[in-house]
Amino acid sequence: MNTPENPKAPRAKREKSEPTAISQEQVLSAFTENPTKVLAYRQLSRRLGVTTKGQREEIFAHIKVLRKQGLITLLQNDEYRLADTEAVTTALMPSNARKPTKKASPPVEPPRNRSVQAQFGQDPIVHRRRAAGFDYVDGDDRPERAPSNTIIGTVDLATPNFAFVVPEGVDGGDDIRVFTDQLKFALQGDVVRVRLRSGSRDGRPMGDVVEVLKRVRPEVVGRIQIQGTLGFVKADNRKVYFDVFVPPHLLHESRNGDKVLVRITEFPTDPNRQPTGEVVRNFGQAGGNEAEINAIMAEFGLPFEFPEEVQTESEGISEVISEDEIARRRDFRNVTTFTIDPADAKDFDDALSIEKLENGHWEIGVHIADVTHYVRPGTELEREGKHRATSVYLVDRVIPMLPERLSNGLCSLRPHEDKLTFSAVFELDEDGKLYESWFGKTIIHSDRRFSYEEAQERIESKAGDHAEHINVMNDMAHKICAQRFKQGAITFETQEVKFRLDEAGKPLGVYVKERKDAHKMIEEFMLLANRKVAEFVFNLKKTKPRFTMVYRTHDAPEPERLQTFALFAQKFGYKLKLENPKKISTELNNLSSEVMGKPEQNVLQGLAIRTMAKAIYSTEPLGHFGLAFDHYSHFTSPIRRYPDMMAHRLLEHYLLGGKNVPIDPVEEECKHSSAREKLAANAERASIKFKQVEFMADEIGNTFKGVVSGLTERGMYIEIEENKCEGMVRISDIPGDFYELDKDNYRIVGKNNKRIIQFGDEMMVVVKSANLLDRTIDFELVDDRPDDVKKREADERKQRGSEPRGYRDHSGGKGGSKGGFKGKRR
Predict the structure, then answer these.
(1) Does residue 167 sit in the same domain as residue 255?
(2) Cα–Cα distance between 670 and 814 in angstroms, integer?
């Protein structure tokens, strides 16, 4: 680490080493040496010292061959185990020494072709996930495998009528369909034991839950209905298939129509009875902003406040920076430094410094709030930050990982204040070529706080304070970005919906956040810091095992998912050649350019993103496919992400000459952080959906242009182009004909006129209703036909009998939650 006598050390230069090939024998030996142990792919990679993308592909290929040979068995996700010791011994014998067996092993069934619905977690009838999927984060407290006549698995609620149980320990098996009256009141994520029935439905096995082994969270959020002195809570989550009975003494003064959190205290054995619960939190009358947002927080288990001991501990931290502490750090207080953040940001966890060197190069400092200087291991602050793992950004509020005293005060890099930082400093030329890197503890004094809009103004006008420095860095960022894409980075991005709110939280407008050069400049330097920190730690030790580090990893997409996506894109006239793994990013980037500005852009880009694996935190240096980085970490946001704090501690430990850190505790924290990140994303999406419905409630009767974003047997989803709000047009309400879903070709077809409606088609719609309580939006198509024709059709519908106007989506969620076969998911 740096010292006052030698402030420029240590310097980390990029080093390259030739990776060794991974043989099939090495992979098999890892299992034969541990015949009873379950090995995840990441554990296998660590044992074999995998460091490159090529080696990862070799392991995948060997695993595939060994599975076909029946030598190893897939248990769940990417976990494998030795299949049969005797079979392995026989396979390893010379062919002339093998004895014929009396009974041959059954041939390994080749993987079945999966439909687009199964691949992307969508079904034309049912909104569900085919398997745990790329968002899944393993846990370690799962029960032992069930006896042979039953199967243990995790409940994945599909509709109020049935669920799927995702099996554990089943090689190539399908999810098991269980009707809700046979679920024993199990909820999403619960671990259950299922007894298989004879026969199947839709080609899928069926079963009954015989035991609930683990209830993850026996709490339900919903509206309470008071009947006399008794209460019944109807869950907000449409997949919860039962109401909760609340006796009078457990209502706790709740009133009819209140939004409440109820904890289930008794699960009956009789499926005809209802679970009994107690109101543990009342949010007020349903439909109000506070009630609904607080209900979302409770639904996802988000904290409402910090424990008193955490607040007390944060308030007791001194803000005085001692001279001894300054002496231990590299001093950047006299170097031009500024922050660039959203205009409404309060926590500034990164700053940039710039200084021209004598050799004509530029020294760019990426300075990150030194959170771990204040949050020490073993403290209440540390325990709470580790548990929360991430800040959560709902539409109208932030649920911070750390108390305000730290997040907006001590750690925030506010202008004109001395601040403690952990920095990555780079020597670059004007073409963005990197010469040297330095990492260490620093102290800075920010000269200026820019909003993104102010920085963008400097870029566009070339005028204003610090304009020269901002433009130098912007030019570098463009060249660094171009090089990144040249190396295979993926360009697909999701569009971020933002709201303009009044003081009461009511949405006044909805818009899509525009990413300009100022945003991209900051992003490129943060990516550079994250990448180089990861490379630095990885290269500190050349022998195995490498130094333990927190990596942000993103696996390459599965070939089957890519091919399914290619078939989908082909329906829109786009041909993708995805056979060559080295050309996947090029093909996807070309598609991104082709669809830009077209009606199907959001549908295809959203589906492409979901085709990718889910990025997670891991101790395995498996690289980041989407960014095309061999090594990548999260270092730049420790105020709002616990993995960044972990990375800071590990980097400091190694810079001080510390020995390797045990890997298992770090890996467990990585898994927890990945799970919390997923939960936060789901909560954020729920708050966005609520605000979209609230906004559209003032647009009843107005006409908008939209595109078809999803199709089900019940109707089609339309996403409004200008504000990305999405609602449903019921298939029975499409004028002019009777329409049916053609799920194989991702379209609906008129029975008589043969009119075809498919993903990406432009539609003019009228807002019919917006239900705040159900968070659904209903549209109807603009009908320009003569009035007498419309009246005749309306009379025919009336005679046939139509479904109620207000609907509950029994095909997998709420009106806006992408039930059925959807092109994208929020």
Answers:
(1) yes
(2) 32
What's the CA gap between 758 and 764, in Å, rounded? 14
* Number of CB atoms found within 10 A of residue 109's CB: 8
Helix (H, G, I), strand (E, B) or coil at 618: strand
Q: Is residue 200 in a domain?
A: yes
234, β-bridge pairs:
223
- The rounded distance, in Å, linking the Cα atoms of 693 and 685 is 12
Residues 574, 578, 580, CA angle at the centre, nearest 5°? Answer: 145
Q: Smallest Cα–Cα separation from 235: which of 218, 223, 246?
A: 223
Q: What is the pLDDT of residues 289-320, one digit of tens each?
A: 999 999 999 999 899 999 999 999 999 999 99
Q: Are 374 and 317 in contact (CB under 8 A)?
A: yes
Omega within 30 of 0 (cis) for the link into 111:
no
Q: Are residues 286 and 401 both part of a single domain?
A: no
The DSSP secondary structure of 269-331, one letter per residue, reads: SSTTS--EEEEEEEEEETTSHHHHHHHHHHHTT--SS--HHHHHHHHTS--PPPHHHHHTSEE
793/797 Cα distance (integer angstroms): 6
Average pLDDT, the chain: 83
Domain holding 77, by residue range, is: 24-82
Largest distance between two CA atoms of the chain: 91
Q: Rounded to an integer, what distance in angstroms lies between the CA atom of residue 481 and that of residue 525?
A: 10
List the structure tokens of 281: 């939190």
Residue with tokens 């660094």: 480
Cα separation of 724 and 775, whole Å?
A: 15
Beta-carbon count within 10 A of 433 CB = 13
pLDDT in tens, 787-796: 777 677 777 7
133 neighbors 121 (Cβ within 8 angstroms): yes
Which segments within 674-775 are labelled E, that is strand? 703-711, 715-720, 726-730, 739-742, 747-750, 756-758, 762-771
Mean pLDDT for the stretch of residues 167-192:
83
Q: Where are the beta strands (DSSP E) in 539-587?
A: 551-553
Contact, 181 vs 163, CB < 8 A?
A: no
317 and 276 share one domain = no
Does residue 41 lie within any of the structural domains?
yes
Number of domains in the chain: 4
Say yes or no: 337 and 466 in one domain. Answer: yes
| CA–CA distances in Å: residue 258 to residues 226, 283, 318, 371, 383 | 10, 7, 44, 40, 34
Tell how strand 434-445 and strand 330-331 pair up.
parallel
